[in-house]
Amino acid sequence: QLQLVESGGGAVQPGGSLKLSCAASESTGSDYHMAWFRQVPGKERGDIAEREGVATIDADGPTTYADVVKGRFTISEDNAKNSLYLEMNSLKPEDTAVYYCAKKPVGWADFGYWGRGTQVTVSS
Questions:
Q1: Could you give the CA distance from residue 92 to residue 26 in angstroms, rounded to a whole number?
Q2: What is the DSSP-derived secondary structure letter of residue 43?
Q3: Segment among 1-5, 7-11, 20-24, 72-76 with least mean pLDDT
Q4: pLDDT of residue 27 exceeding 80
């Protein structure tokens, strides 16, 4: 079964940067959409419905971003390494959250594969 493992989270001051990585346990080719979601403090961690979309990258390449991160975050992938990335710049305290990597096959309505998340804390 496909497994996703996030890494790269940590504590950073406002204005700082972090780069998150998500490693997939197997190659998924070009038949999947991938995304980063986040869950802010105070939300039930296990509840997928409480997670907000941050950025997506479609199977054929186009990317989308939540308005609150546009211009600051960049999603990318390296299919040769079965990896997804999220480069985060100009971080703000409101970016503090658990960040999750997710995948869904092309044609699925919802993301069905999730990692366990990595904590990002932005504070001075």
A1: 34
A2: S
A3: 1-5
A4: no
Q: How far apart are CA 42 and CA 10, in angstroms?
A: 18
- The residues, ordered by sequence, that sit 6+ positions from 45 with a Cβ below 8 Å of its Cβ are 39, 98, 117
Residues 73-112 have pLDDT tens digits of: 999 998 888 899 999 999 999 999 999 999 998 888 999 9
What's the half-sphere exposure (Cβ side, CA atoms, 13 Å) at 7? 4
Alpha-carbon distance of 6 to 117, in angstroms, equals 6
- Residue 15 burial (10 A CB sphere; 0-12, 13-18, 19+): exposed
In three-state secondary structure terms, 67 is coil
Two tokens, residue 92: 């703000």
Q: DSSP per residue over 44-56, as a string?
A: -TT-GGG-EEEEE
